[in-house]
Amino acid sequence: MIRSHRITRFFVIAIALFFPRFENGRPLSPPLAIAQESDRPGVQAAPFHSEDIQAVAAARLAVRDHPASAQAFLALGTALIRVGDNDGALQAFERAASLDASDAQAWYLKGLIEARKNMWAPASRDFSQAVMARPAFVEARIELGDMLRRRGDFNGAASELNRAIELKPEAPLALYDLGLVRLAQGNLAEAEEGFRRAMVFLSPFPQGEQSLGDVLLLRRDYAGAASCYRQVLARQAENLEAANGLAVALSHLGDPTLAAEASKAAQTLAVQKLQRQRAEIDNARALDLWHAGQNAEALAAFSRSLADDPDFADAHYHLGCFLWQQADESGAIRQYRAALAARPRYPEAFNTLGEAFLTLGQTDRAVQAFREALNLRLGFAPAHLNLGKALEKLGSSQEALEQLEEAIVLAPQTAAPHIELGLFFARSDGTLSPRARTEINEGLRIDPSSRTMIPEGLLDRLP
After folding, report:
1. For a pLDDT cut of 70, what percent of the chain falls above it?
2. What angle do CA 80, 84, 88 make, to 5 degrees?
3. Bridge-partner residues for 45, per DSSP?
4. How many angstroms separate the CA atoms of 104 and 339, rounded?
5. What pLDDT does residue 49 have?
6. Which of 100, 139, 301, 348 suits 427 as a labelling partner, its CA being 20 to 30 A distant?
7. CA torsion, points 294, 296, 298, 301, in degrees to nearest 10?
8. Are 34 and 88 spatial neighbours (Cβ–Cβ below 8 Å)?
């Protein structure tokens, strides 16, 4: 349930988020959300702020009070993007667009989420709707052009991108995408021009340098291509395509020693990429076997995955979860730590490590792990919930309450935060108080199976 006494003053934040933050012509999005899923240049992840969670609470209240307001749903969707809930945001934007078909921003943001999920057909339709609603919407035209290019409609893509450039000549993504269209059409001169113009307005731009190198290689400007690929590798040392391109370019420049070194480096990266791909396949297979109850086979598949790539963080993390279920507590903790060694910015691993510490009675270490998870992803509802439980054990009741309430704001349709908040109220009030009963009943309404979370003494007293 939404507690208005804590969030009314933050309503203005939700309204402010109605206008999303932009950088380089593209809305900013949170870590492990839109930006991470995108292969589009110029997209940078914005950090979370505590105001983002407050904005979600305010936006939910606004939607509750104004269920027919497209702007309220648009504000909710934008706030949810900021905390990483793309699925919830997509639903909110769909509702906003259904309430007001002339709302270009709702169509555009809905299309962005779909595009980052490779849902190109619906994204194309949504960007088209955004352009129809606001013909001068440059960002929507750029995204529509990108979708049309990906779907093979090069003439349609060029038309949209040229119109975007007319509206905003310094739009780097329009220039870059038009370069990709011309490259696909075999027009190397215009492709080169597009990439070079884009790089004037967007720097550093590894993707632009990579594409320019590809064009120069095709145009037999081997020295220019080699220079581009070297710039890419200076920023992205594991870029296999740039390494291969550099090896090819050097092979044409008459220096067999440099060409051989570049070729060897490219081969090393190719082997590493193949090992990671095999590790990903084995990890996915292990998860399927585990969920099917074939534990011995799952363990063998996890082992194969890590043999293929010992630094594959996901395999370490999933193996840790598997070992924890098998009551191998020390083995699980070792795997969680190995996952974090391989990928220090891994909020799920920090959260699960914290759960292990909390179960083992190491509450101080649990709190530290949960805080690390939230430093990486403030909108991570399970970590808020777990931190609240841990803080209560340490006697920090007020902060525990705040964390539990934030978990509900972020995941209002999840039973566990409601149940835990109700149990917190019952403990702090010394009885099954009305507010404790309200939260526990809400959790049971959402998921009746959550009754297992409630002590029998309290369960018997519920209606």
Report:
1. 89
2. 45
3. 29
4. 42
5. 60
6. 348
7. -140
8. no
Of 122, 198, 127, nearest in space to 165 by CA:
198
Which residue's entry shows tokens 């074939």? 294
Residue 186 neighbours by CB under 8 Å, 6+ apart: none
Question: According to the model, what pLDDT value does residue 22 have?
Answer: 29
Quote the pTM value.
Answer: 0.76
Name the residue among 79, 45, 46 with its Cα closest to residue 60: 79
Answer yes or no: are the C-beta atoms of 30 and 45 closer than 8 Å.
yes
Closest to 342 in 3D by CA, of 276, 290, 298, 282? 276
Nearest Cα residue to 104 out of 78, 74, 82: 74
pLDDT, one tens digit per residue, over 352-406 is 999 999 999 999 999 999 999 999 988 899 999 999 999 999 999 999 999 999 9
Q: Is the pLDDT of residue 44 over 60?
A: no
CB proximity list for 324: less than 8 A, separation 6 or greater: 332, 352, 356
* Residue 349: φ, ψ to 5°: -70, -40
